[in-house]
Amino acid sequence: MAMTIADLKRMKTQGERISMLTAYDATFARLVEAAGIEVILIGDSLGNVMQGRSTTVPVTVEDIIYHSRCVMRACQRPFVVADLPFGSYQASLEDGLRAAFRLMKEGGVHGVKLEGGERCVPLTQALTQAGVPVMGHLGLTPQSVHQLSGYRVQGKEAQAAEALLQDAQSLQEAGAFSIVLECVPRQLAARVTQALHIPTIGIGAGPDCDGQVLVLQDCLGMGLEKPAKFVRPFAMLGETAIEAFKAYAHEVRSGTYPNDGESYH
Ligand code: KIV
Q1: Of 18, 28, 44, 55, which is best to mutate to test ligand 1, by the most ligand atoms within 8 angstroms of its C-beta?
Q2: Which of 64, 77, 147, 171 could form a disulfide with 176 if both were Cys (CB 3.0 to 4.6 A apart)?
Q3: Catalytic positions
């Protein structure tokens, strides 16, 4: 059975944690589905992990649509959310509505995620009224990296924590079905999670959220740089891949790949 936003809300009510991962292509979407992950995000983090960029700022609606199509061809059960990329929803409500409709109609996804608090309330309302499930995103919002002066923990001061809680409540009232909390102190994430009836999904926000999300490449240990403090690699596929590539190159160079059994006769 395909996951719905009602299932995700029921999971929160019943105290069942939600697992969410990003995916950007068919191969990994298939594997993520096979593992029983409830939510897939076509994150604008594709700018970093697929395109090699240093921020998510340049990612376009076309990029998200392309990767959404790749993912949607490969999975049926997870609820699939795609990011509205930077610049596609900040200028006007119409821009945001049109971009979201494109992600759903052309990309085939089930819902959209947008970054920001109070300023995203009118669009969240308009989208939900138009039938688009909206996931909010508070705390460290990477699309605003330059405004935030870097990738740093948010909501540490009392006033910022209160503002974040207020933002979360406003998004919930506006119709958001869930909210990602990125890089906020554990106690604040726990407070927000308790205060809301919609599920919170944490990343760098401690264990008290209703669910967790990781960038797939981080989850699999595929990065070459030291990961952020909150990232636990659940495999070391990066090292495994390098070893496999070296073994392949060695056998090609020595003429032992392919062998007779791997050749047509
Ligand atoms: O783009 C992304 O992958 C995200 C997650 C890290 C939440 O927004």
Answers
A1: 44
A2: 171
A3: 182
Ligand 1 atom 3, closest CA: 43
pLDDT over 90 (residue 224): no
The answer, yes or no, to whether any atom of ligand 1 lies below 6 A from the CB of 41, is yes
User: Does residue 143 have its Cβ closer than 6 Å to ligand 1?
Assistant: no
Q: Given the DSSP bridges, would you call strands 111-113 and 79-83 parallel, antiparallel or unpaired?
A: parallel
- How much is the pTM? 0.97
Q: State the pLDDT at residue 108.
A: 98
Binding site membership of 81 for ligand 1 (Cβ less than 6 Å): no
* 136-174 residue pLDDT tens: 999 999 999 999 999 999 999 999 999 999 999 999 999
* Gap between the Cα atoms of 197 and 9, Å rounded: 8
Most ligand 1 atoms within 8 A of CB, residue of 41, 88, 143 to mutate: 41
Is pLDDT at 247 greater than 90 in this prediction? yes
